[in-house]
Amino acid sequence: MSMTPQVILACLSSWTLFCNGVFARVILEESIGFLQGVAMTGLMVSAAMVVCTSPRPADTDEWSASEMIDRLHSPIFCMILSCMAILLLTLRILAVNPRQLGCFRALIASACEDACNRLRQI
Question: Rounded to two decimals, what is the model's pTM?
Answer without folding.
Answer: 0.43
